[in-house]
Write a structure and sequence with these properties.
single chain; 265 residues; alpha/beta; 2 domains; 8-stranded mixed beta sheet; 8 strands; 46% helix; metal ion binding; Transposase_HTH_dom; IS5 family transposase; HARBI1_dom
């Protein structure tokens, strides 16, 4: 069998966080013997999440059984998901920022039942694909603050943000937020770009934005820019580029990646 070395862009801090959590979990359960050390198990899990390595490939690379890989990954996901911040904790962090950036993104999926139209709730007309909607809160320099649990991809960003309680939390605590036009009407603390005016009854055309309004939109886009960096970083975890497990269990996967992203910042 031939093998080759491979690289993975990941800070030692994220590896250390997962290793420490696994070591504490083993001590708590008084596990006497494992095929891999906590550090090696953490490396295996990061290779699965960051690079999308399959169980079979990991089993070959770490010279363990495929079922053992499955158990190791499930164990780590449970621990990481439990460490993910809640919305209340995220709002506490956001209250110390000058403002936050609110945005939604679609995580594509490929395993969804088609019977009785079950898949329709997961189909995003905007992206023309099945997926899961997640709401992302970032700070002004593009660091992750919070990722919401996933909802079916057909859900509108505004509806998803309200269902998670994000809009109410931002309004209650008076936290300024920058968002796109999907969050129009979200409240006094959520700033959105200027939209084209309604049809002019005399000409039957949309009234164009004034130069001042265009300048405001340009400044708003610069303000929102770092939030796009978080969405891009989220998609750098190849396991999330197309979720191949059941969408009903994707919440644990998203929460685990969130914990590692915050540790990696």
């Amino acid at each position: 069998m031939l093998s080759y070395p491979s690289g993975m862009t990941m800070s030692s801090r994220a590896l250390g966080v997962l290793s420490d959590a696994l070591r504490a979990h083993r001590n708590q359960r008084r596990t006497r013997w494992r095929k891999l050390s906590p550090g090696r198990q953490a490396l295996l899990v990061l290779a699965h999440l960051r690079k999308g390595e399959t169980y079979a490939d990991l089993a070959c690379g770490f010279t363990i059984g495929t079922s053992t890989v499955y158990r190791y990954v499930r164990e780590a996901l449970d621990l990481l998901a439990a460490m993910a911040p809640t919305l209340a904790q995220a709002i506490e962090v956001a209250s110390r920022k000058a403002f936050v950036i609110l945005d939604g993104t679609l995580l594509r999926i490929d395993r969804v039942g088609m019977a009785s139209g079950y898949d329709r709730a997961f189909y995003s007309g905007k992206h023309k694909a099945h997926g899961l909607n997640v709401q992302v809160i970032a700070d002004p320099i593009g660091r992750l603050v919070w990722i919401s649990p996933p909802l079916p991809g057909a859900r509108h960003d505004m509806g998803a943000a309200r269902e998670h309680g994000i809009i109410d939390a931002l309004t209650t605590h008076g936290i300024p937020a920058a968002a796109d036009t999907a969050y129009q009407g979200a409240g006094p603390t959520v700033a959105v770009p200027q939209r084209r005016r309604r049809l002019d009854p005399d000409t039957g055309r949309y009234r164009r934005l004034s130069q001042d309004q265009k300048d405001v939109n340009t400044a708003h886009a610069r303000r929102r820019g770092p939030g796009e960096r978080v969405n891009a970083e989220l998609k750098n975890w190849r396991i999330l580029r197309k979720i191949r497990s059941s969408p009903n269990t994707a919440d644990k996967l998203v929460a685990a990646v969130q914990t590692l992203m915050i540790a990696n910042a």
